[in-house]
Write a structure and sequence with these properties.
There is one protein chain. This protein is mainly α. The chain has one domain: Up-down Bundle (Four Helix Bundle (Hemerythrin (Met), subunit A)), CATH 1.20.120. It contains seven helices and no strands. The chain has helices at 3-23, 29-54, 59-82, 88-110, 119-143, 157-187, 190-193. The longest helix has 31 residues, at 157-187. It is globular, with a radius of gyration of 19 Å.
């Protein structure tokens, strides 16, 4: 197994570990989960660059890389849903887009075509990562209200407003996800209009 694929496998392993750490309540668990998420996100950045630079692109990597990406972001969104920081409809939109794109990729693969990510696709990935990283940071900060900053008697808004901003970031990433999905289907409509 080459290095890019090893990095992808590490991301697959880190996704459920991240989810466990985010949901398991212990001091600074959101901060620890955030570190794991960032480490996993960095493997996403490096595996593709290394694969392209060294000519190590494989079918195994083409299959595994998108799976690892979806596992990581879905794990984060499921955490936010479980702790009531994400709307169920937002998650439904994200998952629908992912299933739709996967279906188009399968149809294209049957014809031997690999569809590269578009600018909208890359933008939605960056937006999702930013929203997740911000929300994890806001969640960690909110726990300080009853621990590190308990003696300062700060207004509740100091802790709740960052969470509301995080929810707004999530919705922005969801809108970008929907746009990226619509663009993906439109650009690859040939697989539907030529169907017999």
């Amino acid at each position: 197994m080459n290095l890019p694929n090893k990095l992808t496998v590490i991301r697959i392993i880190l996704a459920p570990l991240f989810m466990l750490l985010a949901l398991w309540e212990f001091p600074f668990h959101y901060a620890v989960a955030l570190v794991v998420f960032i480490a996993a996100a960095l493997t996403d950045m490096f595996d593709g660059k290394i694969a392209r630079a060294r000519g190590l692109i494989t079918n195994f990597g083409k299959f595994l890389d998108p799976l690892a990406d979806k596992m990581l972001t879905t794990a984060a969104f499921l955490v936010f849903l479980a702790i009531k920081q994400m709307d169920v409809w937002a998650l439904m939109i994200v998952l629908t887009r992912e299933f739709m794109v996967t279906s188009v990729r399968l149809i294209a693969a049957k014809d031997g075509k690999v569809i590269a990510a578009s600018m909208w696709g890359k933008t939605k990935t960056v937006a999702q990562f930013i929203a997740i990283i911000y929300m994890l940071t806001a969640l960690e900060f909110s726990t300080w209200q009853h621990s590190l900053l308990a003696g300062f008697h700060l207004p509740d808004g100091v802790f709740s407003i960052p969470l509301l901003v995080g929810q707004a970031f999530i919705w922005i990433s969801v809108v970008l996800t929907a746009i990226a999905g619509a663009e993906y289907v439109w650009l690859n409509r040939e697989y539907f209009v030529n169907d017999k």
